[in-house]
Amino acid sequence: HSLAWLEKFHAAVVDFPEVIEFYRMSGDVDYLLHVVVPDIASYDAFYKKLIDTMPLKNVTSRFSMERIKSTTAYPIAADVKPVKKR
Fold first, then answer.
1. CA-to-CA distance for 46 and 75, rounded, in angstroms?
2. Which end of the chain is more exposed for a tag (fewer CB within 10 A), N or C?
3. Is the four-CA dihedral 41, 42, 47, 49 of positive or negative sign?
4. Is residue 21 over pLDDT 80?
5. Is 49 a residue whose pLDDT tops 90?
């Protein structure tokens, strides 16, 4: 991708209210979008809006069947004492 493409893509995606998380990845997938919509028809509308924004080479979707665990809390123990600097 060119820098201009990256900037245009970033600007477009951050403005989609359906996107609640947006990551640039390493490896074989360039970006990961966490999208929340009420149903498949809404996802289809989002998908069409996304691909209309700019040319995309490959879009792959995966759908969660069941939420087993979801948290935003970091596993930091309250009783851990900070390390003293020497």
1. 34
2. C
3. positive
4. yes
5. yes
Q: Which amino acid is at 81?
A: K
Res. 24: pLDDT tops 90: yes
Please, what's the largest Cα pairwise distance for the chain?
59
Placement of tokens 């924004």 in the chain: 53
* Average of per-residue pLDDT across 63-73: 90
Q: Cβ distance 13 to 22 under 8 Å?
A: yes
**Sequence letter at residue 2:** S
| Per-residue three-class SS string for the chain | CCHHHHHHHHHHHHCCCCEEEEEECCCCCCEEEEECCCCHHHHHHHHHHHHHHCCCCCCCCCCCCCCCCCCCCCCCCCCCCCCCCC
Q: Which of 48, 29, 45, 49 is nearest to 37 (CA)?
A: 45
